[in-house]
């Protein structure tokens, strides 16, 4: 019991001394051993890596599992080392409701059979989504979690230990300085040599760990490439499922008498594509009438406003567009708008 009390008192005294020492350093009244610039750059890179990795993991998990309650549930099951219960995705719930509604309205009706077909596809999409979430966790979020919980925690632990060694070193320097003012003592100088040796050793250990961040970046790059591959595969599977569904629904048009997909969407897309193409062209006013000499040229009349663009390796002509007509037109016949 006496030993424990003494240890508590000793630790409390050491803690108070460190607080006083840190306060004096901030006030500039005591000496502080500075780490070299290379070490500081390594630490800044490691700390930046930690911060961004935490943010990337957090945002990725939010995208994969938008429900925060589910994320908390998964976190708890992970911490107690138990397998989380399997849960259906929102798409699978939607698919079940569509199938149930289709059966209620009657599988023999156009609406009922369509609901069942769409519901089955929604279920497949939900399963595909779950597979994507699982593969992304395995190839991206879990390796990054492992880095944060393993390598990064070790670096922070060693960096904190280095800070303690630095405080011990500076305290020994202060004792040596005071001892020299009092005619000096070899004990303080011996303690200083020991503290300097421990500080240098800990600095080297921490620096080696910090230099390993470059290897971690290479590992994270591989994880990122696997994430892109997984996400690309997921969207390809979704497009394949929806294309198959679209073909199936097209066959129902003759039965229901209603076209499954509006033609206006394709018309609007064509108009949007045309507008986007014109947005990249310049506007010009035609100064003189010009009659096309062949099918590759564009006829134009004085005062007309047309769209034009440069023709590579041709300083005399530009490519003009007017409505559905397009062709070459002399540059000298045009006045560009600012």
Model description:
There is one protein chain. This protein is of the alpha+beta class. The chain has helices spanning 2-27, 37-64, 68-79, 90-105, 110-181, 186-211, 213-250, 253-256, 264-279, and strands at residues 282-286, 305-311, 314-322, 325-330, 334-336.
> In percent, how much strand structure appears in the residues?
5-15%
Q: Reading side by side through the largest sheet, how are the strands ordered?
A: 4-3-2-1-5
Oligomerization: single chain
Helix content: over 70%
Number of strands: 5
Radius of gyration: 36 Å
Q: Output the number of helix runs.
A: 9
Q: Which shape, going by the Cα principal axes?
A: flat
H and E string: HHHHHHHHHEEEEE
Key traits:
single chain, 338 residues, alpha+beta, 9 helices, 70% helix
Give a quick rundown of the structure.
The protein has helices at 2-27, 37-64, 68-79, 90-105, 110-181, 186-211, 213-250, 253-256, 264-279; strands at residues 282-286, 305-311, 314-322, 325-330, 334-336. It has 338 residues and is an alpha+beta fold.
Secondary-structure map:
Layout: H1 2-27, H2 37-64, H3 68-79, H4 90-105, H5 110-181, H6 186-211, H7 213-250, H8 253-256, H9 264-279, E1 282-286, E2 305-311, E3 314-322, E4 325-330, E5 334-336
Antiparallel strand pairs: 1-2, 1-5, 2-3, 3-4
Helix pairs in contact: 2-5, 4-5, 5-6, 5-7
